Amino acid sequence: MAIDEFCKQLVRSNPAAMADWLLGVSGGEDYAGLIAPGFYWQLIDTELAAETQRADSVILHAGTATKPNQLLHLEFQSRPDRQMPERMLEYWIRLWRLHSKPIHQVVLYLRKTNSPLVRVDELQVGETRHGYGVVRLWEQDPLPLLQNPALLPLATLARKAGRSTSADAEHLALVADRVAAIKNPVLQKEIAGGCHLLAGLGFSQELINAYFTMGILDDSVTYQAAVAEYTRRGRLEGERQGEERGIQLGLNQGLNQGIQQEAQCLVLRLLPRRCGQLSHEQELAVRALPLEKLEALAEALLDFDGPEALDAWLAV
Question: How many other β-carbons are positioned within 10 Å of the β-carbon of residue 252?
Fold first, then answer.
């Protein structure tokens, strides 16, 4: 979940850079000529309804004499979601009701997967059809990302598919060289921390540590803000449910524990959609799973059709 929060923070810090790149790779042909200097882009509130459903990031284009105000809505996904088409339609409707402006939507998948779900870019039910952009980061040309320091964390995962171990090392070395070329030491630490965090979705920890030291995360304000926001949301959720279940994720626990907590939170959020409300015993059993089992459960739950399916999977 720290990864999700980091991506949101990345957009908050660099809305123009994200818009410039994504509108060029996500099927935004109708947006040709829309890209404008950074001051035209403004992040807006992502809360969409009274039940506090939030989009990941929503950017407002302030408009020009020839272009009206428009919205860019981004969703970051490290795993496939069978309900993504319905979610995107719901987000679109709520954004339209709030702002009544043209909306371009993009789902950005971060982690490489062979799931066909990451190739779905529309909802079609009867006469209802809603399309949106899909960007699979591992299929993207890394060059535009390498040319913009703000996007270097995303560059770590661009076009990794099919490369050898030596090519992986060369790619991370190239990203690390671009980070080292950043003259502002504060910005350099921020970008290096983001590279270390996102690279965990596609590379071994040993290889990552060879180019981006763990200690750099302690100095990354962006990373700390992402973890703090995640911890705050976990605490609020625990308070709403009357339980002390807020996730206490500290920087001193290291990146590996952060990934473990991310996987645990994701699985516990998705399971009720497939199995209904979990029993206390089921939740405890899920929380006790190691990271490898949590990742396997995240894939398997897509085919669950009730609580019995979860019990059967846990019993294996």
Answer: 6
CA atoms of 131 and 28, how far apart (whole Å): 12
Using DSSP's 3-state secondary structure scheme, residue 224 falls into helix
Report the predicted TM-score, pTM, of the whole model to 2 decimal places. Answer: 0.61
Is 249:230 a contact under the CB 8 Å cutoff?
yes
| DSSP code of residue 54 | B
CA distance 109 to 136: 5
Q: What's the rounded Cα separation, in Å, for the pair 43 and 17?
A: 12
Each residue of 199-213: pLDDT tens digit? 888 888 788 888 876
Instruction: Return the DSSP state at 63.
Output: -
Helix axes 307-315, 254-275, angle to 10 degrees: 140
What is the per-residue pLDDT across 270-307, written as a single tens digit (0 to 9) for each?
A: 888 788 888 888 888 888 888 888 888 888 888 888 88
Angle, helices 280-287 vs 254-275, to 10°: value is: 150
DSSP assignment of 140-204 equals: S-HHHHHTSGGGHHHHTTTT-TT--HHHHHHHHHHHHHHHHT---HHHHHHHHHHHHHHHTTTS-
Query: Looking at this protein, which amino acid is placed at residue 62?
Result: A
What are the pLDDT digits (tens) for 123-148? 999 999 999 999 999 999 999 999 99
